[in-house]
Specification:
Elements (H helix, E strand, L loop, with lengths): L17 E9 L20 E2 L2 E2 H9 L5 E8 L4 H14 L2 E6 L5 H8 L1 H5 L7 E8 L2 E3 L3 H10 L5 E7 L9 E5 L6 E6 L8 E9 L3 H12 L8 H12 L2 E5 L4 E3 L3 H18 L15 E3 L4 E2 L4 E2 L3 E3 L4 E2 L4 E3 L1 E3 L4 E2 L4 E3 L1 E3 L4 E2 L4 E3 L31 E3 L4 E2 L4 E3 L2 E2 L4 E2 L3 E2 L2 E2 L1
Parallel strand pairs: 1-4, 1-6, 4-5, 8-12, 14-17, 15-18, 16-19, 17-20, 18-21, 19-22, 20-23, 21-24, 22-25, 23-26, 24-27, 25-28, 26-29, 27-30, 28-31, 29-32
Antiparallel strand pairs: 2-3, 6-11, 7-13, 8-11, 9-10
Helix pairs in contact: 3-6, 6-7
GO molecular function: transferase activity
InterPro entries: GMPPB_C, Hexapep_transf_CS, Mannose-1P_guanyltransferase, NTP_transferase_dom, Nucleotide-diphossugar_trans
Family: Belongs to the transferase hexapeptide repeat family.
Length: 427
C-alpha cells in the first residue's frame, strides 16, 4: 500500500538541527489484555486500518522534516521486528533501528540505558530534540506542533502532549495541573486516587538532551541505581516541581490501544483520517461499500458482499457472496464463506467461517453524549467474576462450522467450534 503524501512541516528547520524519535514498544508479558491477538505477533505490529499500529506513528513522525532516525525500544526479541523494519526503512526513506533491552526496565530505564545511542549524532548533526511515544496509543498526532512548542520554551527540558478526559475517567491516566499562560506543568500525578485534573497525558513527549543528565541520572540516583525507572512516577513529578516540564494541549482525536476493543476503535478513526489525508487508501463507495472501508489489494471480495462502515480487510482474505461485515477487522488470509455476518468483531489470521455463521460482539465506544469521553478499557471480567460484554475475538486458525452464532466470545487459536457460543472464553 502506498503511503499518503506527507503534509509540509510548519517548522523552520536550521541546517544543522536534528531530531530523533523513540517508540517504546514494551515486550511480551503474561496476562496481556491484548490476547489472543498478541499470541503470535507483537502487539505494536497488529494491523489496524491496513497498517501495523506503530507504522501509523512512523508515518506521522515522518511529517517532521528535521527527523533523521527512528528507534524502537523494547524487550521483544529483535528478530520479531526485523522484517517490519526493513520494509519501513524502504517505504519511508529513514533509518529505523530496534534497541533490545535484556529485561523490562520501566518506561524511562531504557531511555537511560541507551542514552549514548539515542543522542548519537546523525549525518554529522547533533541531536537537539528527541520525540518519545508509547506504542499503545493512537491518534491524529500534532508532531510538528510539539517541536514548535519546545523551541518556544527555552527552559523546557520536556514538553508533554496533553488532552482532556471526563472527571470520572481522568484518574485512569497521568493527570496534570498546567499554568494556562506559561504552559508550565505545576503538578503531575500518575493515576491519582483522588481527583486532580481533567487534563491528562497522551503518552507522547519531546525532550532536550539535557533531560538525560538533569532528570534521568538524578532519578536513577534517587531510585538507588536498580536500573528500573518510570517517567510517570520517577521523573515527571519532580520535573514539574523544578519547573522544567511544559505541556501542549490538543483537541485532536487520541486514544489508547491496550485492548482489542481499543484497536477496533482506532481502526475506525484511522479510516476516517484516511478520508481527509489520503482517500486513495479507502475502497471506493458503492451500494455495497458503506462509509470508510479498507480492503487490501490482494483480498478477494464478492461483489454481492456488503462491507462497512469502519471495516478493514487484510491481505489474501476471501469474502464470499452475500457476506455482511460491519465495524470489524478481518485479518489476513481469513475466509468468510457465503452469507456470513460479522459485526463488532476481530477475526484472526487464517480463520474460516462456514456459510451462514454469525459472529457478533457488543459495540464498544466512548459515550457520544459526553464531551472528551475516552474509551473504557474494561477487564475481561467484572467484579462478580462474570465476563464483561465486549467484542467477539477469534484467534488465528479458528474454524466456525456452518449456521452457528458466536456472540460476545473470545476464542483462542486453532479451535473448531461445532456449537454456538455466547458470553464465553474458549480455551
Amino acid at each position: 500500500m502506498d503511503s499518503c503524501v506527507m503534509l509540509p512541516s510548519r517548522v523552520t528547520v536550521s541546517a544543522n538541527m536534528s531530531a530523533k524519535a523513540v517508540l517504546l514498544v514494551g515486550g511480551a508479558q503474561k496476562g496481556t489484555r491484548f490476547r489472543p491477538l498478541s499470541l503470535g505477533l507483537p502487539k505494536p505490529l497488529f494491523p489496524v486500518a491496513g497498517l501495523p499500529l506503530i507504522e501509523h506513528h512512523i508515518e506521522q513522525l515522518c511529517e517532521c522534516k528535521a527527523l533523521t532516525e527512528i528507534l524502537l525500544l523494547g524487550f521483544y526479541p529483535s528478530e520479531e521486528f526485523t522484517h517490519f523494519i526493513e520494509c519501513a526503512k524502504k517505504k519511508y526513506g529513514i533509518h529505523i533501528e530496534y534497541l533490545e533491552e535484556n529485561a523490562p526496565s520501566g518506561t524511562a530505564g531504557g531511555l537511560l540505558r541507551f542514552r549514548d545511542r539515542i543522542l548519537q549524532p546523525t549525518k554529522g548533526k547533533e541531536t537537539e530534540y528527541v520525540f518519545v511515544l508509547n506504542a499503545d496509543i493512537c491518534g491524529d498526532l500534532p508532531i510538528t506542533d510539539l517541536l514548535d512548542e519546545i523551541k518556544r520554551q527555552p527552559d523546557a527540558e520536556a514538553v508533554l502532549l496533553t488532552t482532556e478526559a471526563t472527571r470520572d475517567q481522568a484518574s485512569n491516566f497521568g493527570c496534570l495541573v498546567v499554568d494556562p499562560k506559561s504552559k508550565k506543568v505545576l503538578h503531575y500525578v500518575e493515576k491519582p486516587s483522588t481527583f486532580v485534573s481533567i487534563t491528562i497525558s497522551c503518552g507522547i513527549f519531546i525532550l532536550r538532551p539535557n533531560f538525560w543528565p538533569n532528570q534521568l541520572e538524578r532519578a536513577e540516583a534517587e531510585a538507588g541505581g536498580n536500573g528500573t525507572l518510570w517517567y510517570e512516577t520517577d521523573v515527571f513529578p519532580q520535573m514539574a516541581s523544578d519547573g522544567k516540564l511544559y505541556a501542549l494541549h490538543t483537541t485532536r482525536w487520541w486514544s489508547q490501544t491496550k485492548t482489542p476493543a481499543g484497536a477496533l476503535y482506532a481502526n475506525g478513526h484511522y479510516l476516517r483520517l484516511y478520508r481527509v489525508k489520503c482517500p486513495e487508501r479507502l475502497a471506493k463507495s458503492s451500494p455495497q461499500i458503506i462509509g470508510d472501508v479498507f480492503i487490501d489489494p490482494t483480498a478477494v471480495v464478492d461483489p454481492t458482499a456488503k462491507i462497512g462502515p469502519n471495516v478493514s480487510i487484510g491481505a489474501g482474505a476471501v469474502i464470499g457472496a452475500g457476506v455482511r461485515v460491519r465495524e470489524s477487522i478481518i485479518l489476513p488470509e481469513c475466509v468468510l464463506e457465503e452469507h456470513c455476518c460479522v459485526l463488532h468483531a476481530v477475526v484472526g489470521w487464517r480463520s474460516i467461517l462456514e456459510p451462514w455463521t454469525r459472529v457478533e460482539g457488543t459495540p464498544i465506544a466512548p459515550n457520544p453524549n459526553v464531551p472528551f469521553a475516552k474509551l473504557d478499557n474494561k477487564p475481561l471480567f467484572n467484579g462478580d467474576g462474570r465476563l464483561n460484554p465486549s467484542l467477539t475475538i477469534l484467534g488465528s486458525n479458528v474454524r466456525v462450522l456452518r449456521e452457528l452464532v458466536i456472540l460476545n466470545t473470545v476464542v483462542l487459536p486453532y479451535k473448531e467450534l461445532s456449537t454456538s457460543k455466547h458470553n464465553q472464553i474458549i480455551l
